[in-house]
Design goal:
Elements lengths: L1 H20 L13 H4 L13 H23 L3 H22 L3 H25 L1 H29 L1
Length: 158
């Protein structure tokens, strides 16, 4: 009976981690690329629009699993609060960039988000190396996205 309870608890915790993590993109549901974005000058290396969905879905799944691994090992602890903080920053970027059309502010916000992700990786590493490794593609993608954000800002507002 204890084993069944433990499996159920772990399954529910993973489902909760996935649900919480996938709440981040919901903040931008009404702030999608528009004519404003289509009219921006973009670098030649700007990825096609269709790539962002699959990349972000993969990253969110890895992020949720990482959070779940930390929860399994350490329970609700400081690393998970940091995880939620970087997730809130993740949620804020889309409305700033696409909703408010504030490319410079979005870039500044993304730099703070990148630092929060880095600190999350470092704190996760002390609890679960696997969890920290699962966040590295996210850290790399956000670094790339920050560079793209900066380039769009520079190309269109300098």
């Amino acid at each position: 009976m204890i084993r069944i309870y433990s499996k159920l608890r772990n399954t529910l915790a993973l489902a909760a981690a996935i649900l919480i993590t996938f709440c981040a993109p919901l903040a931008g549901i009404f702030s999608t690329p528009s004519e404003w974005y289509a009219g921006l000058a973009k670098p030649d290396w700007n990825p096609p629009g269709w790539i962002f969905g699959p990349v972000w879905i993969s990253l969110y799944v890895m992020m949720a699993i990482a959070a779940w691994l930390v929860w399994k090992r350490d329970g609700w602890s400081k690393p998970l609060w940091l995880y939620l903080a970087q997730l809130a920053l993740n949620a804020a970027w889309t409305p700033i960039f696409f909703g408010a059309n504030k490319i410079g502010w979005a870039f500044a916000e993304m730099l703070i988000m990148w630092l929060a992700i880095l600190f999350t990786v470092l704190t996760f590493r002390h609890v679960s190396k696997a969890a920290a490794l699962l966040l590295l593609p996210y850290l790399a993608w956000v670094a790339f996205a920050a560079f793209l954000n900066f380039t769009l800002w520079r190309m269109n507002f300098y």
